[in-house]
């Protein structure tokens, strides 16, 4: 059996793009135990309440839900334990500077397998206010209407 190739998405946080303005993204590895990887291979995880923090020069992913592995024994893992993220030192220093700047947070966007290794796409984000969300929805609706009209015009209907 050879190594897996490509990217297989396990879980994505679709609400994050709605609630936050994404400024920058990073790809990070995660320090996991064996039963967590087996549970992820079954495609079971949730990023709903997950967030990342920088403590003592290390980045930690908190509240990521990976359910216990069904066939696991006493070696099974806790489902919501804090997991260490693996980033380059320069990226961690940049994140420390940006998060101390104020108003910025680290939000996981998706969890996936990349060439057999579990990775997380981490976003440096700023929370949106309700009027920002309304503006985004209005832009999306306007863009949808424009594409609808252009599609009709291309077909010769209107």
TrEMBL record:
<keyword id="KW-0963">Cytoplasm</keyword>
<dbReference type="InterPro" id="IPR000037">
    <property type="entry name" value="SsrA-bd_prot"/>
</dbReference>
<dbReference type="InterPro" id="IPR020081">
    <property type="entry name" value="SsrA-bd_prot_CS"/>
</dbReference>
<dbReference type="InterPro" id="IPR023620">
    <property type="entry name" value="SmpB"/>
</dbReference>
<protein>
    <recommendedName>
        <fullName>SsrA-binding protein</fullName>
    </recommendedName>
</protein>
<comment type="function">
    <text>Required for rescue of stalled ribosomes mediated by trans-translation. Binds to transfer-messenger RNA (tmRNA), required for stable association of tmRNA with ribosomes. tmRNA and SmpB together mimic tRNA shape, replacing the anticodon stem-loop with SmpB. tmRNA is encoded by the ssrA gene; the 2 termini fold to resemble tRNA(Ala) and it encodes a 'tag peptide', a short internal open reading frame. During trans-translation Ala-aminoacylated tmRNA acts like a tRNA, entering the A-site of stalled ribosomes, displacing the stalled mRNA.</text>
</comment>
<comment type="similarity">
    <text>Belongs to the SmpB family.</text>
</comment>
<dbReference type="Pfam" id="PF01668">
    <property type="entry name" value="SmpB"/>
</dbReference>
<keyword id="KW-0694">RNA-binding</keyword>
């Amino acid at each position: 059996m050879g190594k897996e190739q490509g990217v297989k998405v396990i879980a994505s946080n679709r609400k994050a793009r709605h609630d936050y303005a994404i400024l920058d993204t990073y790809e990070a590895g995660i320090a996991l135990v064996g039963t967590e990887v087996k549970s992820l291979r079954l495609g079971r995880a949730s990023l709903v309440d997950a967030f990342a923090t920088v403590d003592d020069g290390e980045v930690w992913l908190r509240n990521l839900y990976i359910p216990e592995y069904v066939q696991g024994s006493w070696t099974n893992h806790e489902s919501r334990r804090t997991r260490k993220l693996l980033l380059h030192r320069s990226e961690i220093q940049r994140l420390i500077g940006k998060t101390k700047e104020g108003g910025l947070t680290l939000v996981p966007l998706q969890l996936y397998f990349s060439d057999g290794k579990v990775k997380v796409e981490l976003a440096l984000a700023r929370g949106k206010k309700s009027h920002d969300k309304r503006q985004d929805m209005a832009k999306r609706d306007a863009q949808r209407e424009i594409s609808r009209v252009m599609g009709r015009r291309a077909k010769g209907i209107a």
